[in-house]
Every structure is written in C-alpha cells, then in structure tokens.
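Hi L., both proteins are below.
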Amino acid sequence: KIPARRRRCAPARFLLKLSATILALFLCALPLTADRAAAQVHLAQGNDLFNRKDMRGAIEAFSRAISEDPTWGEPWGMRGFVKYRDSNFTGAIEDLTIAIPMEPRRLDFRMYRVQTYLYLDRINEALEATEENNRLFPAESEVASQYGRALVRAGDVDRGLEIMNKAFEASGRDVRLSPRADAYFRKADWAALAQEAETAIAGGAPSM
C-alpha cells in the first residue's frame, strides 16, 4: 500500500521529472550548436579547479562547458556535484536531474542526487530514486546500501537495516557501506551502535 503522503506528492514529483526529461531531450536536439571540443576544455578546467578546492571557479568552468555543449551530461553532472559539495543543494538537484537522462549509466550522478535528497529530508524522492537505481544496478552493493539508508529514514528500519547488512557483507565488509548507526539508534540497540563505531574506526574512518 502506498502511504498517503507519497500519493499526494506523486503528481508534483512526476511533473518535476517530466520537466527535467523534456529539457534534457530538448538540449539533446541541438547538436548543430554544440561544440564538444570546447566544452571538454572547460570541463578539464573545472575538474582542475575543483581538485584545488576552488568551488566557485569550478562551477563557472562547468557552466562555460554547458554553454558550449548543453547536450553533454558530464558538465551538468559535475556542476551538480560541486554545488552539492558547496552546500547549494537545490541547485545540485536541478543539475543532476538534467544530467541523469543524458548520462543514464553514470551511477555517481544518481547517488549524489539521492544523497542530496536525504540531506534535505526529501525522503520520498530519495526512496523513488534509490528504488530506480537498485533496479538498474542490482549488483552494486553501494546502491543497495543507499537504498537501505533511505528506507531507514522513511521509517522502515528493520527492512532498511537488513538490506544494509546484506550490502555490507556482499562488499567484503567495506566500512564505507556500513552507515548503520542511524538504524541502530532508532532501534535503541546501543551495543550494536558501539560495535558500528568500532568497525568504522578499525576500517580507517576518523569518526561516525
């Protein structure tokens, strides 16, 4: 049964996705005005600026790449990622939502968008996005773990924790796929929460 809140939000989410998809398709219909070579130069500049922690400069470079070739999803996605890192979460979602139809196999763009939804507490959208990612990338433990996190945030703690546990084991116990502290906290399982912290620290994480 679909929760009433998700049913009420469905039309707005559908229109948002439809608008982003139409925009992406429109942009892809402009090959005669696209200059991919020039866009690649600006993309490389943006990546370099980001690596030097110049967020504003990177965003400007990616914007120039988009202006040169708006049909290429890579600069849209990278600009969205940098906006996320620069705490411009609404802008990040807008750019990543445009990038994903153009670069449907770019899992990192999809996961950054989910992370942004979770950060903004837009849980229903995070759930829908993680469900889609899980269908498209069923063998990716990282995708399953993020799906579990979204379920926990949505209140389905036991199911989310089960999925995260399976992803953790399937990954060879990669501590990056062990973000189970929230689930254990919600269950008031203090022993498991303490063990989670020890596992993370032993794996190289500085803190929870």
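That was the first. Here is the second:
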Amino acid sequence: SLQIVIFLACTIFIRKLDLRRILIGGLAGIFMNSIVGSYRASYMLTQSVRELFIDLLRRYFVFDTPIFAYYASVTHIAASSIAEGNLRYKSLLAFIKSIFVGSKDILSNVTALISITYFPNAGGGVIPTHFFFWLGWFGVIVIAGLLVFVLNRVGKCSTDLFILITIGVAIFTPRWYLYSPLAFFRGPFVFIPVLYTLLGIVDRVLDS
C-alpha cells in the first residue's frame, strides 16, 4: 500500500522532482522504514528517535529483509545444481503462467519450492538467482539485459502509459529485486496497462 501511495505521489509531483529532493526523500524514507520495522518487530515504539538513528547507523542501513533475501538467493544457486532440469523448466512455465492469470502452484514460486524440496529459507531472493535456477547463466544474462533495457527507458518515454510503466518499475524495485520477479512483470507490465485501459474506457464512456 505504501508503494501505491508513492506511485500516485510521483505521478502528481513528477515535474517538481529533482535530484536534491529525491535524495532527501530517499534518506527520509530509509529512516521512516526503520521506524516501521521497529514497530513491526514489537508492535510498540520502545526506542526514541535518537536510538533508532544510532541503531540504523550500527546496522549500516541494513535490515533483516535483505539478509533473508540474500540467504534465499544462495539456496537458489545451490538447488540449481541438484534439481532435475524437468522440474526447473516446469517451474519457469508455472511462473510465466502466474504473471498473467495468477497461480497457487508451488512450482511458480522458486523460493517456496526450494524451501520445501531442498533447502529451508525465510523467503525472498534477488532477481538474478531466480533466473539462474531456471536457466543457469543464460537466464541471468536474459534478465540483466531486460532490466538494462527497461531502466534505460525510465524518463525517456513520451506517452502517459509508458511513463506510468517506468515509474511502476522504479517504485516496485524493492519487491522485484528482493522478493520475486513476479512484481517486476505483473505490476508494471500487466496491472498498470490493464488499469490504464479500463480507466480510459470509463473516461470515454463518461465523456460520451
């Protein structure tokens, strides 16, 4: 929900954003996230603002989530060497299906599949290791090339739809980089175009 709020704010104030404001907002966001993380850990704010800031410096701005995600990534790599090729390809196909129609199939979730079948983990995993599990180094090259292409388009698109898609890619970065590539494909490239199309239809109906 916070990402949606940020997304809407970017669409409203995009012309007022500059590097200085982005940096200030980013640092403020990191600090606010630490407050939210502290609250979620105990459901009460037991630390002062000064203590939160000191704790943030002590952790080098690192939270538990990326630690768990990187560990899950290691399990992706380890499992790729022992999983049968047939299982890996089935998992990839199940993932592609989940992008468009959703899926509760455990095969579509690499991290959960590996946690149940091979190595327990706490969830997450950086995006390249998902593709390494499916397709080896070829998969890493494919997703890297796709990311470079999409990120190079950020800020260079002229139509409203493509501007929304590139903003969506940026806003959802924590989710698709640390959790699942599903957030990279489904959010910006499926949900946003569908929603944009539906809103356009509604707008034309109301104007007619």
